[in-house]
């Protein structure tokens, strides 16, 4: 799953690199702002991936194969309805995004184009969330890798073709995403349907069970609040960068891709924590639960150290590959160390998220994220005016550290009562 997740930030950096070849900081800023709005919208439905993983893993731990299938189909039904609504509302999201960012007109125009096109993929993206959640809940990392590789591989190839070769720029990057998500849905559904033909199927009554939907939506409420708080922090980070000027906004966008690469690099072990913690909770097995927490922590910190060293040594070369703008390169190189060390600051938060998602302790995740967001906001108000972009990046590190340490503190209390 580490390999699978690495394809997602790789796609983000390819998107940035394709648009960066036009040498226009406004286009890079528009792509960054548009991606942020898109992430805010889709974070509402992140439970279709993470919540499905936790529920399927617990059903797997109990040996309840019918409930595993039922969880998937409930998530798919929610994905179809929500996706169609999101696609229909894309013009409103574009206008709201422009208002929130308050960037210069050319940045706003590029952002609007990206949002209006990319949100057309909403039904396909959400169904892919559900399918990936089912696969990961069963611990099938190889299949998850294949699905993510197909999705992002198609997307990356089309980014080069539409965005660069045909010169469509930001619009080409957005259409590449729509096409990749659609083709990935066809493949994912073909795989799960062929598998389910050989198994006993859950009844329609079980799939449409209202208490089960209420549990899933309750899980969604907490994960949604947690995810919105996370994205609100990233939104404030991006907005504050925009206030420092278009070049700083573009440079931060490039560096945030490095942070995302490090984060997704570590998410493989967070996913392992989801699967193993969920199974242990489902089977009421405390020893495997503690072992899963210990091992994913050790490996997570080891990989975080490697990721930081790679970014410190090779980061300047990567910046040069991503953008041809000399001004953006200079600013990005200045703040590169801040981005490199986000892997070590964030590893505990990523790993704890995995444990709490697998155990479906969503309320604790929500509460600790709200605390972390308040601390981040205070740091931002204090440090950014005093130290400029250095203060902005320092605030992000404070946010990541508080997230991880607060969840670790709660985990010790939770384990005493969970089993």
Description of the structure:
There is one protein chain. The chain has 419 residues and is mostly helical. Helices cover 89% and strands 0% of the residues. It is built from 17 helices and no strands. The protein has helices at 2-20, 25-43, 47-62, 65-88, 90-101, 105-118, 122-137, 141-165, 170-196, 204-207, 210-243, 246-283, 286-322, 326-340, 342-358, 362-387, 389-418. Helix 7 (122-137) packs across helix 9 (170-196) and helix 15 runs parallel beside helix 17. The protein is globular and about 60 Å long. The mean pLDDT is 85. The chain crosses the membrane at residues 26-48, 71-93, 113-137, 149-168, 174-196, 223-241, 247-266, 297-323, 335-356, 368-387, 393-413. It comes from Mesorhizobium montanum. This is MATE family efflux transporter. It is a multi-pass membrane protein. Keywords: Membrane, Transmembrane, Transmembrane helix.
């Amino acid at each position: 799953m580490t390999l699978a997740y690495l394809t997602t930030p790789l796609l983000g950096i390819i998107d940035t690199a394709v648009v960066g070849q036009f040498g226009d900081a406004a286009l890079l800023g528009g792509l960054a702002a548009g991606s942020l709005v898109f992430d805010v919208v889709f974070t509402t439905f992140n439970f279709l991936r993470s919540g499905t993983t936790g529920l399927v893993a617990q059903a797997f731990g109990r040996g309840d194969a019918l409930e595993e299938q039922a969880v998937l189909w409930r998530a798919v039904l929610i994905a179809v309805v929500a996706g169609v609504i999101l696609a229909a509302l894309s013009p409103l999201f574009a206008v709201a995004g422009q208002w929130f960012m308050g960037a210069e007109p050319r940045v706003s125009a590029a952002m609007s184009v990206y949002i209006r096109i990319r949100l057309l993929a909403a039904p396909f993206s959400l169904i892919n969330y559900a399918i990936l959640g089912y696969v990961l809940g069963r611990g099938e990392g190889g299949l998850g890798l294949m699905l993510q590789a197909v999705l992002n591989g198609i997307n990356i190839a089309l980014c080069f073709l539409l965005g660069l070769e045909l010169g469509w720029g930001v619009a080409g990057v957005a259409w590449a995403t729509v096409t990749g998500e659609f083709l990935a849905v066809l493949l994912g559904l073909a795989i799960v349907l062929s598998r389910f033909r050989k198994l006993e199927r859950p009844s329609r009554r079980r799939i449409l069970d209202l208490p089960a939907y209420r549990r899933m939506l309750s899980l969604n409420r907490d994960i949604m609040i947690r995810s919105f708080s996370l994205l609100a922090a990233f939104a404030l980070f991006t907005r504050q960068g925009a206030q420092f000027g278009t070049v700083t906004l573009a440079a931060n966008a490039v560096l945030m891709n490095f942070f995302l690469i490090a984060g997704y690099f570590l998410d493989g072990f967070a996913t392992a924590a989801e699967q193993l913690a969920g199974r242990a909770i489902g089977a009421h097995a405390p020893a495997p639960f503690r072992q899963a927490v210990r091992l994913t922590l050790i490996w997570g910190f080891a990989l975080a150290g490697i990721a930081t060293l790679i970014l410190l040594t090779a980061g300047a070369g990567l910046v040069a590959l991503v953008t041809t703008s000399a001004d953006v390169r200079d600013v990005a190189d200045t703040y590169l160390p801040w981005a490199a060390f986000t892997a070590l600051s964030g590893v505990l938060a990523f790993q704890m998220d995995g444990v709490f998602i697998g155990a479906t302790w969503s309320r604790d995740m929500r509460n600790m994220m709200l605390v972390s967001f308040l601390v981040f906001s205070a740091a931002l108000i204090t440090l950014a005016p005093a130290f400029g972009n250095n203060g902005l990046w320092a605030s992000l590190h404070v946010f990541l550290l508080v997230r991880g340490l607060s969840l670790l503190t709660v985990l010790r209390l939770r384990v005493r009562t969970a089993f």
